[in-house]
Amino acid sequence: MNPLTYVPRLVTALPPVEAGGRILKAYAMFADPERNRELPEPGWLRRHAASVLDEPLQEEDHPAGFLILHRGAQADYLLVSQWYDADMLRHRVRGAATGADGETVFAPLAQRDLVACVWELEIIKFERDAWVNTVLAQGTLDQATLDAYLGTTFSGWV
């Protein structure tokens, strides 16, 4: 396939994941859903999200964010994002690799300054809008706004 060809990808919202003192909305994205549309087990996703969130919450971190497990055309990726200081996003991108025990691990990319691909950016944009509409527009992060944020998810084609 020509790398300059855009082919839509399927996104499925998953139940939220609690990891590292945070609650993360979760998404699975599939480059080829006809070949591979297997959803991750919640424990597997929680374990890998926790491995990416390898530091405790900082003072201005919000305990809310989102993750994207992208089953890509060439490789799998795990993006973990967390809201920080009201209107900023802390973002981590990891690529799948095989660990010494033969299990999947998610490691930093060789290109450490990569943010996201065009498909993942659609979910990031959706999450930006959800955060603004459910939290920032209300002026508070309490249980009601957190529940509204966590309840605002996307599923479909991007």
Short description:
This protein is 24% helix and 36% strand. The protein has 158 residues and is of the alpha+beta class.
Task: Describe the structure in your own words.
The chain has 158 residues and is α+β, with helices and mostly antiparallel strands. The chain has three helices and seven strands. A seven-stranded mixed β-sheet has the order 6-5-4-3-2-1-7. β4 and β5 (88-98) form a beta hairpin. α2 (118-136) runs antiparallel to α3. The longest helix has 19 residues, at 118-136. The two termini are 18 Å apart.
How does the SSE layout of this entry go?
Elements: E1 10-19, E2 22-30, H1 42-52, E3 61-71, E4 76-84, E5 88-98, E6 104-108, H2 118-136, H3 143-150, E7 156-157
Parallel strand pairs: 2-3
Antiparallel strand pairs: 1-2, 1-7, 3-4, 4-5, 5-6
Helix pairs in contact: 2-3
